[in-house]
Design a protein that fits this description.
By secondary structure, the chain is mainly alpha-helical. 76% of the residues lie in helices and 2% in strands. Pfam families: BPD_transp_1 (PF00528). Belongs to the binding-protein-dependent transport system permease family.
């Protein structure tokens, strides 16, 4: 084999190795900090390993359990609120001849078109006047705002991908519009709707800025706990919290890959 032919697989291997290092390098560092009890310069690896910091994180006084509970309550509530608005909105945008449909779709993207910081600062000021700062309801509302972007766009694509011939067949057999929607349209759109709900859940679980300005210090979630630990130099606690946050993200992304089909993805934004 000539040197020029050897360079191609060698370059490809180096590129894949670089990508793997960029992706898995930070995760490896998190894993090292999560089980390191002593790690000081100039040692390359921790000198003492153990689970002592895991026990500290999950002590009742550490606040991890309450933060995890708040995280799950807020995320599930944000999913329920976002999907309650996204399902009728997505169906209307996909099936009804609405004037200015594309403009309406773009309106849902506006929260993502600007930096999060000034948006959440202004939301916090409005919520303070309404008495919603430091409340669970206020945090749920601020988490549902970015979640609506995923929910509405994916729900619209899911309903647009549903086979209308099956709906027409059900109507010809005497099914009412509501019965047709429940028995024919909704089951076809359900995989896309589940994917949208998972996107909202993952976005809420990882949300920090909105929770910080609207909920802190009364409402503490895992991202806030991780931030406070890292700012205080408690890198083991921050690493453990990060690994906990990774578990639902990795698991649900595998679910999304299974349920979000190509025909739904091809209709997003249409």
């Amino acid at each position: 084999m000539t040197p020029s032919r050897l360079l191609t697989p060698l370059g490809l291997g180096l590129l894949l190795g670089l990508i793997a290092f960029i992706v898995f390098g930070p995760l490896l560092n998190l894993a090292l900090w999560a089980f390191a009890e002593q790690w000081f310069y100039p040692h390359t690896l921790p000198t003492v390993w153990g689970f002592d910091f895991w026990a500290r994180v999950f002590r009742p006084r550490a606040g991890a359990w309450s933060s995890l509970t708040n995280t799950l309550i807020v995320a599930l509530s944000a999913v329920a609120l976002s999907m309650a608005l996204a399902v009728p909105a997505g169906y209307a945008l996909a099936r009804l001849p609405l004037p200015g449909r594309h403009a309406i779709m773009l309106l849902f993207l506006l929260p993502q078109a600007f930096p999060n910081l000034p948006i959440f600062v202004n939301i916090a000021a409005i919520f303070h006047q309404l008495g919603l700062t430091g409340t669970l309801i206020g945090v749920v509302l601020v988490h549902a705002l970015p979640g609506l972007v995923y929910a509405v766009w994916i729900a619209t694509a899911a309903f647009a991908a549903a086979d209308r011939n099956l709906e027409e067949a059900a109507r010809n057999l005497g099914a009412t519009p509501l019965r047709t929607f429940v028995d024919v349209t909704l089951p076809q759109a359900l995989p896309g709707l589940l994917a949208a709900a998972i996107f909202v859940f993952l976005d809420s679980v990882d949300e920090f800025t909105g929770t910080f300005f609207v909920g802190a210090p009364e409402i503490t979630t895992l991202p806030l706990l991780m931030f406070n630990a890292s700012m205080g130099g408690n890198y083991q606690v921050a690493a453990i919290t990060s690994l906990i946050l990774l578990i639902p993200s990795i698991g649900f992304m595998l679910v999304i890959e299974r349920f979000l089909k190509a025909d739904v993805l091809s209709r997003i934004g249409r």
